[in-house]
Amino acid sequence: MYELKTKENDKSVIEFIEAVDNPKKREDAYKLLDIFTETSGFQAKMWGSSIIGFGKYHYKYNTGHEGDAPLVGFSPRKAKISLYFAPGESEREELLKSFGKHTSGKACVYINKIADIDVEVLKTLIIQSIKFLKETYPDGA
User: For the domain with range 8-136, which CATH number is right: 3.90.1150.200, 3.40.1280.10, 3.40.50.300, 3.20.20.300?
Assistant: First the structure.
């Protein structure tokens, strides 16, 4: 049976951010920590070794695969900062048009720095993602 590597744990979010090499990225990580905490209403928790997540939900796919994941989160990686929002949330693509400089994948949106994006749009993305996941997985959010 496949086991998820990215699980919620008790590692220190602050220690993780303090270990970020690039001072500018570390500063942005603290700003994101404040934005996500304030907007989501959840305390930050480490998920795996490098994702800072907020809230959690339990998902179960038609294939039978299931697990827990943060409602939203971010990770200050070496190349870019990864922002985690709900995949499949219909308003995400529309919001990203006015988000600023970014690239995106299925569940991640990648930015270089906070100065490149509209923070108000970020807050809306956080709120929409949480709302979508709570509606999609009402028993697990």
Answer: 3.90.1150.200
Q: How many Å apart are CA 103 and CA 72, to the nearest integer?
A: 17
The closest of 72, 82, 73, 81 to 129, measured between CA atoms, is 72
In whole angstroms, give the CA distance from residue 115 to residue 66.
Answer: 36
Q: Give the residue extent of every domain in the chain.
A: 8-136
Summarize pLDDT for 7-61 with one digit per residue, the tens: 899 999 999 999 999 999 999 999 999 999 999 999 999 999 999 999 999 988 7
Mean pLDDT of 108-124: 97
- For residue 54, report the phi and psi dihedrals to the nearest 5 degrees: -135, 125
Q: How far apart are CA 61 and CA 49, in angstroms?
A: 25
